[in-house]
Amino acid sequence: MYLILLTFIAILATGVQGNGACQNENYINRTSTDEFYFPADWNEDESPPRQSAGQGCSWNINIPQGYYAKVIISGNIYDNHSHFELYDYYGNVEFFKVGDRTKPYFFVGPKFLLSIENESTAYYGFKIEWLKFPQGIDYNAGIGGVPQVVNITKDVLAAEFSAITGISLLAFPADLNNIDTLRSTFVFEGRDYNGNFVGSLYHLYLKSNQYLSSGQMIYVVNVQARYVMDQLLVQEAGYTKGITAYEGLNCPPSSTCRKPLQPGNPKSGLVYIGNQTQTLTAITMDKTSSLSVYYGGITNFGFYKTYTGSTIQSLLPLTFAPGITQYIISGGRTSFTFQFSG
């Protein structure tokens, strides 16, 4: 896919020479300073420079083993047909018109592509920085029937998780309006960054489901301190792999929150992590289905109670304790309404 995108851009994009101009098909390797700027005389503390109209430019950036890349884009593209484009090696594509230098992008090797199209005059500059992955392990845990919650983006963190039946990961952003903080956290199969790359927590979160590892060990590394409390729920996959539609119940504190849930095969589920009481005030579910509630892991030890679809309406409202609370549906489409308090 990456090679097809390169060919497509090479055909469509035409370099323009002169003041405020860029070229197409630039190939950039790690520099002696570990930094690359465009334009070369710009830096991220300055206002974005003016760029000539009618340009199509691309940069192929190589990332050596043991490094990742951080990209800061500053500026705006104003016409309706133009945008910034970012393509990683693994098929993720992003299009945007405004580059915010406070919201960097992060990439792992072997390469990624930055492309810019602007029909009218635009203002932009960007910086690429090559940085080494953190060394060593800050957090190491074997996971069993008791899930673990890790503050994953507050600090630089390298963590290793293992379980006999594999690992389940589910991210909980601290701010649903700013999930970009998850971009700096990478997931690899195995014990370090030399394993198979799975994706960033940002892209895994967008899939609205758990990630299940292919092996017994997962390496999760947050390469930049974001100073926020994004959380990662880590469970043994053997307890969750039958839940094919599995989402976080991530709602603002002290709010009323409606959460639809698609049917799973055989099960679907919501999981809450936090310090608020959850009061279920309304639910729509099949009368032949059941809702099972667990505190902590989805185990016999964590089991609290099961409610049937035919009788649950007469029991509302139902109040559940803070912590890790799991709502598992046996089948069918479901809609929950919760009131959070405490």
Note the topology.
Elements: H1 2-12, E1 26-28, E2 35-38, E3 50-51, E4 55-62, E5 67-76, E6 83-88, E7 93-96, E8 98-99, E9 105-108, E10 111-118, E11 122-132, E12 139-142, E13 148-151, E14 157-162, E15 167-172, E16 185-189, E17 197-200, H2 201-206, E18 211-212, E19 217-222, E20 231-236, E21 243-248, E22 256-261, E23 267-274, E24 277-284, E25 290-295, E26 303-308, E27 318-320, E28 323-329, E29 334-341
Parallel strand pairs: 1-4, 12-14, 21-23
Antiparallel strand pairs: 2-11, 3-11, 4-10, 5-8, 5-9, 5-11, 6-7, 6-10, 13-20, 14-19, 15-18, 15-20, 16-17, 16-19, 22-29, 23-28, 24-27, 24-29, 25-26, 25-28
Low-confidence stretches: 3-19
Can you tell me the CATH superfamily of the largest domain? Spermadhesin, CUB domain
User: How is the main sheet built?
Assistant: 6 strands, antiparallel
Number of structural domains? 3
The CATH class assignment of the largest domain is Mainly Beta
Question: What is CATH's topology name of the largest domain?
Answer: Jelly Rolls
Number of strands: 29
Mean pLDDT: 92
As a whole number of angstroms, the C-alpha radius of gyration is 23 Å
CATH architecture of the largest domain: Sandwich
User: Please, what is the oligomeric state?
Assistant: single chain
Helical coverage, percent range: under 10%
Describe the 3D structure:
The longest helix is centred in the N-terminal third of the chain and has 11 residues, at 2-12. The radius of gyration is 23 Å and the shape is elongated. The model is unreliable at 3-19 (pLDDT under 50). It is built from 2 helices and 29 strands. The N and C termini lie far apart (49 Å). The chain has helices spanning 2-12, 201-206, and strands at 26-28, 35-38, 50-51, 55-62, 67-76, 83-88, 93-96, 98-99, 105-108, 111-118, 122-132, 139-142, 148-151, 157-162, 167-172, 185-189, 197-200, 211-212, 217-222, 231-236, 243-248, 256-261, 267-274, 277-284, 290-295, 303-308, 318-320, 323-329, 334-341. By secondary structure, it is mainly beta. It has 3 domains: 2-132, Jelly Rolls (Sandwich); 139-241, Jelly Rolls; 244-341, Sandwich (Jelly Rolls), CATH 2.60.120.380. It is 5% helix and 48% strand. Strands 2, 3, 5, 8, 9 and 11 form a 6-stranded antiparallel beta sheet that branches. It has a 5-stranded mixed beta sheet with strand order 1-4-10-6-7, covered by helices on one side. The protein has a 5-stranded mixed beta sheet with strand order 12-14-19-16-17.
